[in-house]
Specification:
Rossmann fold, 14% strand, 257 residues, disordered N terminus, alpha/beta
């Protein structure tokens, strides 16, 4: 005897599930993972204000060489006036947005124990990466490393958490780039020269690393002057990497020269 699915029971099960879910939202409403307000859209993780803040900083055109905001025309040309005379060792950059509004709040919180933001950070990074011109030209994702003391104190490397969550058909995460000197914190008001001096010689690669002839994509949370990314890219190229790109969650220091 052939039996047919009980459509009535299936419908009833879905109705019960939806009702329980609705009651759960009413009695224990989801909190925005960023600001703590109620999340308007069920399961979104962010409230309307935080989404609006993200949209406002993630929709601007930017220079694909340095990551700074530019006009749509300059974005199509590829190089802005701000970075034309700069020595940049990485071969291109892609960003999720500008370091402002709710993105700034999330990036700060993410590197200070709020690891529940990792899914949103990875989603932003993945979305940005898909718009890059070098998506198909990546052999390794290399998170910008923390010094072991800072890594031990914080408990995790936020850039690594983003890197391991990225969706890519072939590229793998590699941690053979290490920070060998515990550099000072780099506040926004720190000068370009001071930042470059602070990170000079701060990175190295492990013995028998696989970087020779490979195309690397550095992963980091914030690019301000680019001193850290520059030093990392320089180190990787000195060790044989053929290309080094950068993927960052945000770009700050829009007016720093």
């Amino acid at each position: 005897m052939i039996t047919t699915p009980n459509r009535t029971s299936n419908w009833f099960a879905r109705a019960v599930s939806d009702t329980v879910g609705g009651l759960g939202q009413l009695l224990w409403p989801a909190k925005c993972v960023n600001c703590g307000r109620h999340s308007v859209e069920r399961g979104s993780g962010l409230c309307d204000d935080c989404w609006d803040g993200l949209i406002s900083v993630c929709s601007a055109d930017y220079c694909r060489r340095c990551g700074r905001d530019v006009s749509p025309y300059v974005a199509r040309e590829g190089v802005c006036l701000s970075c034309r005379g700069e020595e940049i060792h990485f071969d291109g950059i892609v960003r999720a947005g500008r370091y402002a509004e709710s993105l700034q709040d999330m990036v700060k919180a993410f590197k200070n124990d709020k690891t529940e933001l990792d899914s949103i950070m990875v989603w932003l990074a993945d979305t940005a990466l898909e718009t890059s011109t070098f998506f198909q030209d990546i052999d390794f994702f290399v998170p910008v490393p923390l010094h072991w003391r800072k890594r031990l104190r914080r408990g995790y490397n936020h850039s690594y958490l983003v890197a391991i969550g990225l969706k890519h058909p072939t590229a793998k995460v590699n941690t053979d780039l290490v920070r060998i000197r515990n550099t000072k914190e780099q506040p926004t008001m720190m000068t370009v020269t001071a930042r470059a001096k602070n990170v000079a010689g701060a990175f190295a690669v492990r013995y028998r690393h696989p970087f020779a002839g490979r195309r690397i994509c550095l992963v980091d949370d914030i690019k301000t002057t680019g001193a850290t990314l520059n030093e990392c890219a320089k180190t990787l190229k000195e060790e044989g990497a053929s290309k080094v790109f950068a993927l960052v969650l945000s770009v700050a220091g829009q007016n720093m020269m």
